[in-house]
Amino acid sequence: MTSDGIAVQPDASAAPRGRRSRRAVDVPTLVAGARKGDARSVARLISLVEDASPALREVAAALAPHTGQAQVIGLTGSPGVGKSTSTTALVRALRQAGKRVGVLAVDPSSPFSGGALLGDRVRMQDHAGDSGVFIRSMASRGHLGGLSWATPQALRVLDAAGCDVVLIETVGVGQSELEIASLADTTLVLVAPGMGDGIQAAKAGILEVADVFVVNKADRDGADQTVRDLRYMLSLGGRHSEAGHWRPPICRTVAARDADNGVEEVLAKIEEHRQWLEASGEGHRRRSERAAREIEAIALATLRGRMGDVRGSAALGALADEVVGGSTDPYRAADELLGQL
Amino acid sequence: MTSDGIAVQPDASAAPRGRRSRRAVDVPTLVAGARKGDARSVARLISLVEDASPALREVAAALAPHTGQAQVIGLTGSPGVGKSTSTTALVRALRQAGKRVGVLAVDPSSPFSGGALLGDRVRMQDHAGDSGVFIRSMASRGHLGGLSWATPQALRVLDAAGCDVVLIETVGVGQSELEIASLADTTLVLVAPGMGDGIQAAKAGILEVADVFVVNKADRDGADQTVRDLRYMLSLGGRHSEAGHWRPPICRTVAARDADNGVEEVLAKIEEHRQWLEASGEGHRRRSERAAREIEAIALATLRGRMGDVRGSAALGALADEVVGGSTDPYRAADELLGQL
């Protein structure tokens, strides 16, 4: 990622990663700075989260009281549908409405798509220097597929920094749509005419995760057909056909246009969805479910970590020898091992 | 699997699986029966292990004092190299040498290969009724790929039943070679002329796990070339070239022949390898490492089970709501959750 157009830079001026992580961190000062909208503090906190700094737990604890306010909007779609252009247009419209906006762009680690993404990213330049916008690219890594494990914590940093809206943009490949839906209050699925996205969406279970469909590049041939395809697929049922459920609207945009681009309607549908989330209780259910899954993941990672500590340890070696010698069995040995954790 | 030719049948006469598992189980009597060589007791114990019966822990504990004697020989190779024929020939030779033999055949769950395997299995008929041979097919299931998670425990049943040698036969697909090597004292890798197995072996890291190579169907064209290929690949190094390491010999067999089939030489090489394992300490290291991995796997499964108990529980829901409300953070919540396990 280039440093152009990034209000929040990945702390490039600081010491190398390894040293930076071990440097003493003044978490309360950083959190206070972030809450005042200081871009450097926000950047530093996200870096601490991304680097899984030893201060991670302190950061999480300090952020907690200041979270829960931001509306989280996920934005996904296949490469080429215009995600970055749409993000730019949404950010511009939200800024005009006086909202403070955070953007987390989760790049796939795939090396061959890096170039194209960097090119897209430069288009965000028009927000550079706007202190009401925080933009941060995150590496996607770990076992989660499309979304970085650090994304939920980075989201909390932007939440605590007073963002009214946080946009999470991710390339729609494989698992990532499902993951973004588990993080976002409202998930936008972008499609474009003539890309067979409708069919792909149906296959990938996108219908189940989309709260709002956006047919971008709606001035192109085939846009009507794409809308019809989506409408037909929605008519086939799934959860959307049940009473009391949200029926995803289909918007048309030409995000690359400076005006009359349809983005206002998307924002209106997002607002409608927000109200539905609140009225139906689904909003709280989603956030609670999201937190539960995050707690579980951390708990399992902690256990795995402790298990890693005993791997190759004298204790495990001794237990293994007892099993080989027949003086105990592997189940009793496992119990003893767990007792030592 | 058919019941033909199986000294130890999968307890087909008993009640259906679910009911059988809940039936009261007299583990001490079964273990005593197995130690006396009673085929029904052995079959029943392996079924309890395979079904993950509630009595699993009791079975493991009762078996432990009687284990550690059997020599475990793994046998793997691509489909078509003649694994079942070779197993039959090895069993016959071992019986002639007065050894008590157990066979665990791990079938891949792949439905399209089932037919061929059943066909192969019928060839084991000539050992039917021989009380010195226990033969059991096991389903391969779970996340372990080629080998069933129950295999190590089934192996202990046969060990406790007084088998001098247990052969584990598995179709060499993907991970299973590596898994069989982690279970076996000595791993035989079967190849056949003209199948490109040599190249495949090099690719799949088979060179690292093979203790003895067996070129079966050695009367066919191309057998010399296959031997040369293997020899060349072994000469390229790896662990085998280091001093004090075992250098895998290459045997030739025509396992389908009743006599003069080369199997005696394979048994001689297995015996050489056994002596090397003992003299070098590698034998104990392998068994200890194997037990350590099994203990770890059971411990992790236990933890996951406990985690499953809290999934959707009131405790997790309450913690999640606290995270959503900002009164705690997910790390502290995870600690609390772990405290409750």
From TrEMBL, chains A, B:
SUPFAM superfamilies recorded: P-loop containing nucleoside triphosphate hydrolases
Record-linked InterPro entries: AAA+_ATPase (IPR003593), GTPase/Isobutyryl-CoA_mutase (IPR052040), GTPase_ArgK (IPR005129), P-loop_NTPase (IPR027417)
Keywords: Chaperone, GTP-binding, Hydrolase, Kinase, Nucleotide-binding, Transferase
AAA+ ATPase domain segment(s): 69-213
Sequence segments annotated as region (Disordered): 1-23
Molecular function as annotated in GO: GTP binding; GTPase activity; kinase activity
Signal sequence range: none
Family: Belongs to the SIMIBI class G3E GTPase family. ArgK/MeaB subfamily.
Name of the protein: Lysine arginine ornithine transport system kinase
